[in-house]
Specification:
Strand content of chain A: under 5%
Radius of gyration of chain B: 21 Å
Shape of chain B: globular
Strand order of the largest sheet of chain B: 1-30-29-28
Radius of gyration of chain A: 29 Å
Oligomer: heterodimer
Distance between the termini of chain B: 31 Å
Helix content of chain B: under 10%
Structural class of chain B: mainly beta
Order of helices and strands of chain A: HHHHHHHHHHHHHHHHHHHHHHHHHHHHHH
Number of strands of chain B: 42
Shape of chain A: globular
Largest interface: A-B, 64 and 48 residues
Largest sheet of chain B: 4 strands, antiparallel
Number of strands of chain A: 0
Chain lengths: ~550, ~575
């Protein structure tokens, strides 16, 4: 029987399969078998399953590639490369395998990585992401001229290629072409402001240009963005999706949390905790998302478990304090914050939370001191800037409030509250260009943030400068606000009326204003009703509701 | 192939060769690098650990297997603890065992003098820094620990007294590297301590596959570095807050104190693990400004933070300014920052030829050293993982840290700042596969070339004698000890500039660099084919420049401030 099977394989090898080209002859490679006895069980199982599939189909490029991806996803890079190489040998027409091997080797063996990426680029010539990676590998290997060509090609394919702009900016910086470097990097910042890489390079450019203030500002932004902005790479995403370790589920949960997908985050954190209940972080992550969902009571169990695991971890005490604050148990929260700060006197978040408790208790000056202390520890602490901005705004200290909003918006990656307030403050000063930029960036990150929508709709509908008005966009944003706030929200209705007027739909504007008037009267808000009536007069005379021009305006 | 010291110059203050005071003009424009008329020599490093009687085994303790401090230590120091003119060896170890001091005898062997010296610190040892903090003419030792650090005062007779409490030094945080530096130029050596992370109790982390592993730095909160000001009366004050050092917490592992911006006062570079490095520029008024990011020395060319461990600095391209090099985790490459001459730095790792060989390795101790005496600073990096990996051929598989062992690296500089990997040609130095941590370079046999001491985690310390062939007499050298008699000690921070054979070479007197280690307190110069030194200039720490006239090469000289010798 076995002889017969062998004979069949031989025949197939000689004549090919179904008339297709004969497969390339590839050397037999042992299936990698990394030491994972003490790995998380799903990881072991997934690797075992991929190996089994491969044993069944040893000539399948897909099976080799799949095992490679599973290994790669779990940090087992050397055996992953073996698999990718074999997959590439078995299916030389598939660009994925040399690409993935090239990515792994780019930081292990750049010379070899370049060979693989060149092969991948030949197979997939129109992939901007691949060319960006290839350019980076060439730069890493000390081949700047070749890197430039790949970056330029990536930019030709995709003018929004941020990594290519960053690479070209770096090359210009190295050659002392500072104006070009500045232009490239500013273009990259337009595409993604919240990226350490762009600000680190801009800091160097500004320093060389002698602009110390700008260099320092960029340096702070480097600190504000501890991570490099992710690059969307569909092939690499396939690898990430293979990861099933506790750590991977934890990271998946954090990504979901950052995207506001709380249920998905909870699910991922639960899996992570099931796999590794000894991890304090896994308990804290799950507790944190439960607090965000308003399930603080349920979260307390996980905080207690975390505390039992490590009562000397300041993160545990700080997070627990936040939950206790949610429950109004301020004394207990304060105790935990005190412990957190004893364990780590530089814990700026704990210091900020101390300020919040003091503020809640009416000790405003002490709260301000605590907020400033948090900022001394970490000048890019966004909640502290926001809290101080609110306090200053409430006291009428507009300049000081604007300063903190500006910082909060920049350090917080267009933090919506700060950005919306800052945009309105800028608009009030007549700086509509800056206000528009802020709102555009802010809405890109928080499309349903109500104050941001309101600020943007207000400027688009009522700005004294025609250059910044956009009736159609104002109507779209105002309608979204109505969806979010309901049709009984008078300020929103007023805004929609102004937007409709700007788009020359006076009939619609009058109708919405009447609706607003009716709500105001029903609620007995006579002053507001009087204002709406005056606006109705303007609308009936066919005049849009523009703000008066500001002498300082542009 | 230990050669007799041609001068056998004793290193006491009054000793040294006579020198004629030179003119006081500015030095000529810097030039340097190996002599093109003479091809590079091969570097030969011969292990002499056993034959010199240096018996030391680093102990990682018996606590939790994946306790993070286990994988981070420990360093080593070269120092002349007894003032006899040669370099003794101090080796730091883990908990439950004393650090050990080995005195070098006249026959070149080492004797364990730990007990009688009183230098057997019992802390959970990480590293050591050496400097004469009390200006009494002998080398004191600061020991960094996972736990309280200790400062040992040299009694002048080869013994030490624990002066930690008496001096007011109090650093409870986990420290790895420290450096003595007179930051305020008041004549007294201050102390900068790089603290690592807040790690009160052992905890186990896991790798991407969920396997138990040593935690990385980001799993623990950062801590603040500490600057102790020497009051000149035998006490220190913690001035970290007033100096601005305490403004930013970090995860410091390596320290290098040099005048990076060339303004005459020492700055401090801190190699941080997993986050942006610090370059504390000295404002000259007792305060510092952190400037690494805007100067381009905080992140690599891709703006990535790197796991910086060891750090060294030197003028690798003979352009008169200091370049920086640091060692990193595998898959990061080590990084070379070239000084652009305006105070900024560029990551030139790849064009310098240093990226490829270091990508697969995790570097710790490192040093720029002219191994072949050709006038160009070569580079050494010792390696060992902090995350398990595949066993490398040559490793002892039964060792509990076998999966962490890696070979070392040696690079030759062609004089222009381009390096060639010559690791395969250096014998056992790179052939041994161990978990190396500390690296200290110094001329232990006073024969004019730099020897290397390597400390290994959970393994033996190893001493390598530099037996690089001297070719056709084109590897001349000079070793300079610079002493300020008013301070009765080595002039840490003094810049020694040697002009020989048409080249200008600069070194700073300061042994503290690498990782948790301290090297030779003297400045070593390879002179290539130059048989005479045309001029030596010393810029003393207070800015005063003194010139010394022509002298033959191949000498160890002690230059004393204010004298012609």
């Amino acid at each position: 029987m076995s002889r017969l099977v062998s004979g069949c394989i031989l025949v197939l090898a000689l004549v090919g399969c179904g008339g297709a080209d004969p497969p390339a002859r590839t050397a037999r490679v042992p299936i990698p078998d990394p030491e994972v006895a003490d790995a998380d069980p799903p990881v072991r199982e997934k690797i075992a399953a991929a190996r089994t599939s491969l044993r069944r189909s040893p000539d399948s490029a897909g099976a080799w590639g799949r095992l490679g991806m599973v290994l790669d996803a779990h940090g087992l890079f050397a055996p992953a490369v073996v698999c990718y190489r074999q997959a590439a040998a078995l299916d030389p027409g598939d660009g994925r395998w040399p690409y993935l091997a090239g990515i792994v080797l780019a930081v292990d063996d750049p010379v070899e990585a370049i060979t693989l990426l060149e092969r991948a680029a030949a197979l997939t010539p129109d992939s901007a992401v691949l060319l960006e990676t290839y350019g980076d590998a060439l730069l890493r290997a000390g081949r700047p001229g070749e890197a430039r060509r790949r970056y330029e090609r990536a930019l030709a394919i995709d003018p929004q290629s941020r990594k290519a702009l960053l690479g070209l900016g770096e090359l210009a910086l190295r050659h002392g072409a500072l104006d070009e470097a500045l232009a490239r990097l500013q273009q990259a910042a337009e595409l993604e402001f919240c990226d350490r890489e762009v600000h680190a390079r801009l800091a160097r450019v500004h320093r060389r240009l002698g602009d110390t203030d700008s260099a320092r500002r960029e340096t702070l932004l480097v600190r504000a963005y501890p991570d490099l902005a992710p690059v969307s790479d569909p092939v690499r995403a396939l690898v990430t999706a293979e990861a099933v370790s506790a750590k991977a589920y934890g990271q998946r949960g954090l990504r979901a949390l950052a995207g506001g997908r709380l249920d998905e985050a909870e699910q991922s954190f639960r899996v992570a905790l099931d796999l590794n209940a000894a991890s304090v972080r896994n308990h804290l992550n799950l507790a944190g998302v439960l607090v965000r969902q308003g399930r603080t009571g349920e979260a307390m169990t996980y905080f207690e478990d975390a505390l039992a695991l490590d009562d000397r971890d300041p993160e545990v005490h700080n997070n627990l304090a936040v939950a206790l604050m949610e429950l109004g148990r301020l004394d207990e929260a304060q105790d935990h914050l005190r412990t957190a700060l004893q364990l780590d006197p530089d814990h700026d978040e704990a210091q900020f939370n101390v300020g919040t408790i003091l503020h809640q208790r009416g000790a405003v000056e002490e709260a301000v001191t605590a907020y400033h202390r948090a900022l001394e520890i970490n000048p890019v602490n966004v909640p502290a800037h926001l809290a101080l901005a609110r306090l200053h705004a409430a006291r009428g200290n507009t300049e000081a409030a604007v300063d903190h909003w500006r910082r909060a918006s920049a350090f917080g990656c267009y933090e919506p509250e700060a950005t919306a307030n800052l945009a309105m403050a800028e608009a009030r000063r007549g700086r509509f260009d800056h206000a528009s930029v802020l709102l555009r960036q802010g809405l890109a990150r928080a499309p349903d943030h109500e104050p941001m929508l309101a600020a943007a709709a207000t400027i688009f509908a009522t700005c004294p400068s025609a250059r910044y008005r956009n009736g159609a966009e104002a109507v779209r944003l105002a309608n979204r606000l109505v969806e979010l706030n309901g049709s009984e929200h008078v300020p929103t209705l007023n805004l929609l009326a102004a937007a409709l007027a700007e788009s020359r739909d006076f009939e619609g504007a009058i109708e919405v204003s009447r609706q607003a008037l009716e709500v105001a009267r029903r609620r007995g808000e006579e002053d507001l009703a009087a204002v709406i009536e005056r606006r109705l007069d303007l609308l009936r005379s066919g005049r849009p509701l523009h703000q008066p021009a500001n002498p300082a305006g542009n | 192939m230990e050669r007799a010291n041609p001068t056998a110059a004793p290193l006491a203050l009054a000793a040294g060769l006579a020198w004629i005071a030179g003119c006081t003009g500015d030095p000529p424009p810097p030039t340097g690098g190996p002599d093109p008329a003479h091809p590079a020599l091969s570097v030969r490093l011969v292990e002499i650990t056993r034959q010199t009687g240096l018996v030391f085994e680093h102990d990682t303790g018996e606590e939790a297997v994946y306790a993070m401090p286990r994988i981070m230590g420990s360093g080593a120091a070269l120092l002349d603890h007894d003032g006899d003119g040669d370099l003794d060896i101090y080796l730091v170890t883990g908990p439950g065992r004393p650090n050990q001091l080995f005195a070098r005898g006249s026959d070149g062997t080492y004797r364990d003098v730990t007990d009688e010296s009183g230098l057997g610190d019992m802390g959970y040892g990480m590293g050591a820094a050496v400097g004469d903090y009390d200006n009494d003419g002998d080398a004191d030792v600061y020991v960094t620990n996972y736990g309280p650090d200790a400062l040992y005062r040299n009694n002048g007779d080869g013994t030490f007294t624990d002066a930690t409490a008496a001096t007011g030094i109090d650093n409870q945080a986990w420290a790895c590297s420290a450096g003595f530096v007179d930051y305020d130029l008041d004549g007294h050596l201050d102390l900068f301590v790089a603290n690592y992370v807040h790690y009160p109790e052992p905890k186990v982390c896991s790798d991407d596959a969920g396997r138990p592993e040593f935690c990385g730095p980001l799993a623990s909160p950062p801590t603040r570095d500490v600057l102790f000001h020497n009051n000149g009366d035998g006490t220190f004050d913690d001035v970290s807050a007033a100096a601005g050092i305490a403004r930013i917490a970090g995860r410091g592992l390596g320290v290098m104190c040099e005048d990076f911006d060339g303004d005459g006062d020492p700055d401090v570079y801190v190699a941080n693990d997993g986050e942006a490095n610090f370059l504390w520029l000295n404002n000259g008024d007792g305060t510092f400004t952190e400037s690494a990011t805007e100067l381009g020395a905080a992140l690599n060319a891709f703006a990535s933070t790197e796991a910086s461990m060891g750090v060294t600095a030197g003028d690798i391209d003979a352009d008169g300014d200091l370049d920086l090099f640091m060692t990193h985790l595998s898959r990061e490459s080590n990084t070379l920052y070239r000084n652009d001459g305006t105070g900024g730095f560029d990551d030139v790792t790849a064009p310098a030829g240093l990226a490829g060989p270091s990508f697969p390795l995790t570097g710790f101790g490192t040093a720029f050293v002219d191994l072949d005496n050709d006038g160009a600073l070569d580079l050494v990096a010792v390696n060992g993982r902090v995350k398990r990996g595949a066993l490398i051929e040559g490793v002892e598989p039964t060792s509990s840290l076998a999966a962490y062992a890696e070979p070392n690296l040696v690079f030759r500089n062609d004089g222009s700042g381009r390096f060639a990997d010559i690791s395969d040609d250096t014998g056992p130095f790179c052939g041994l596969v161990e978990v190396s941590r500390g690296l200290a370079a110094g001329d232990i046999d006073n024969d004019g070339d730099l020897d290397l001491l390597v400390s290994n985690c959970h393994g033996p310390a190893r001493l390598f004698r530099n037996d690089t062939p001297q070719g056709r007499g084109d590897a001349h050298w000079l070793i300079v000890r610079a002493v300020d008699p008013a301070r009765r000690r080595d002039a840490y921070g003094a810049v020694v500039t040697v002009t020989a054979g048409g080249r200008v070479l600069r070194r700073t007197i300061n042994p503290g660099h690498s990782y948790a280690s301290s090297g030779d307190h003297r400045a070593h110069f390879g002179l290539g084919a130059a048989v005479t030194v045309e001029q030596i200039e010393i810029r003393w720490p207070d800015g005063h420049r003194q010139h010394f006239g022509p002298q033959p090469a191949d000498r160890i000289v002690t230059l004393i401030r204010g004298t012609t010798r």
